[in-house]
């Protein structure tokens, strides 16, 4: 969707584990201030730069018009979850490798931000998922993710049984190494490696993809986002986990039920005017390149 709003206040978040992120954050802050833009630093990056003006992410998101994330997809996933309640536009500057979510490259940072500051940008909303774990009839924890919810057997040697229902109707019991429940954004993450389909991020669907299923007819299935998925986990051994966006993990007990549904929150990404999703796929996946064969 078109943006059009001039940006006057910018928040900066960075992956401080990348050395270049500190240098880029300092340079970006100075450049933004030269443009007459008010700048807020995330508390973590401010401390790393020796500044005392850092803000907690929720406070930063409440004050800023735009969030700039310096890092890779991991930094974008963490940022999206922490500021999800504020619906603030996020632009990612790619300091990582693949960068599906951080579509602005470092050498494009200043020209791209110059256009964005004057209101020359568009945004796209990315669907998120809410997940809760029900244990002994009580909700034990709740999370929101942008990419995926993954049930995995961890270090177990045996496969696990996952009794799956859709809107209360029994679907099947997956006997597999795990189960991926993914958004369209997450379709190019773990789900893709597990043989799942690539889904345009603008689609409102949920992908259910078993990992190495015992029954070969258990294939990925694409479901409408209006449904609720219940997965009851059965295992003779302890050690089954549920991983959230690949960054947080919860240990499950046999008999736990996961409830997954479309979240009321979305992640709003600033989209580049000179790059479409097909170009991103070609670039990140290497499609269309000639094989490097010496003739």
TrEMBL record:
Residues reported in the UniProt entry to bind NAD(+): 73-74, 78, 147-148, 158, 175, 177, 188-193, 247
Q: What does this protein do?
A: Involved in the regulation of the intracellular balance of NAD and NADP, and is a key enzyme in the biosynthesis of NADP. Catalyzes specifically the phosphorylation on 2'-hydroxyl of the adenosine moiety of NAD to yield NADP.
Q: Name one GO molecular function term.
A: metal ion binding
Q: Which reaction does it catalyse?
A: NAD(+) + ATP = ADP + NADP(+) + H(+)
Protein keywords: ATP-binding, Cytoplasm, Kinase, NAD, NADP, Nucleotide-binding, Transferase
Needs which cofactor? a divalent metal cation
> What are the recorded Gene Ontology BP terms?
NAD+ metabolic process; NADP+ biosynthetic process
InterPro entries this protein is in?
A: ATP-NAD_kinase_N, ATP-NAD_kinase_PpnK-typ_C, NAD/diacylglycerol_kinase_sf, NADK
- Location in the cell: Cytoplasm
Annotated protein name in UniProt: NAD kinase
Lineage runs: Bacteria, Pseudomonadati, Thermodesulfobacteriota, Syntrophia, Syntrophales
Instruction: Write down the PANTHER family for this protein, in alphabetical order.
Output: NAD KINASE
Mostly located where?
cytoplasm
Q: Which organism is it from?
A: Syntrophus gentianae
GO CC annotation terms, alphabetical: cytoplasm
Catalytic activity, EC: 2.7.1.23
What positions constitute the catalytic site? 73
Q: Which family does it belong to?
A: Belongs to the NAD kinase family.
Which superkingdom heads the taxonomic lineage of this protein's source?
Answer: Bacteria
């Amino acid at each position: 969707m078109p943006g059009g709003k001039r940006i006057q206040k910018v928040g900066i978040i960075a992956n401080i584990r990348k050395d270049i992120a500190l240098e880029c954050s300092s340079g970006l802050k100075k450049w933004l201030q030269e443009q007459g833009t008010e700048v807020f630093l995330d508390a973590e990056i401010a401390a790393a730069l020796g500044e005392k003006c850092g803000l907690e992410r929720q406070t930063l998101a409440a004050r800023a018009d735009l969030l700039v994330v310096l890092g890779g997809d991991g930094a974008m996933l963490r940022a999206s979850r922490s500021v999800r309640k504020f619906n603030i536009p996020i632009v990612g500057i790619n300091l990582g490798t693949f960068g599906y979510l951080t579509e602005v490259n470092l050498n494009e940072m200043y020209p791209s931000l110059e256009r964005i500051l004057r209101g020359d940008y568009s945004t796209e909303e990315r669907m998120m998922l809410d997940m809760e774990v029900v244990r002994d009839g009580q909700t034990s924890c709740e999370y929101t993710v942008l990419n995926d919810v993954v049930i995995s057997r961890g270090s177990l040697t045996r496969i696990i049984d996952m009794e799956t229902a859709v809107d209360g109707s029994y679907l099947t019991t997956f006997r597999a190494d795990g189960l991926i429940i993914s958004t369209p954004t997450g379709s190019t993450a773990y789900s893709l490696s597990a043989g799942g389909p690539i889904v345009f991020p603008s689609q409102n669907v949920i992908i259910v993809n078993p990992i190495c299923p015992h029954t070969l007819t258990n294939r990925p299935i694409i479901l409408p986002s209006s449904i609720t998925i219940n997965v009851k986990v059965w295992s003779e051994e302890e050690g089954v986990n549920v991983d959230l966006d690949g960054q947080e993990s919860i240990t499950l007990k046999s008999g736990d039920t996961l409830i997954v549904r479309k979240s009321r929150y979305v992640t709003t990404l600033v989209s580049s005017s000179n790059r479409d999703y097909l170009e991103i796929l070609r670039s990140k996946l290497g499609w269309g390149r000639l094989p490097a064969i010496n003739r």
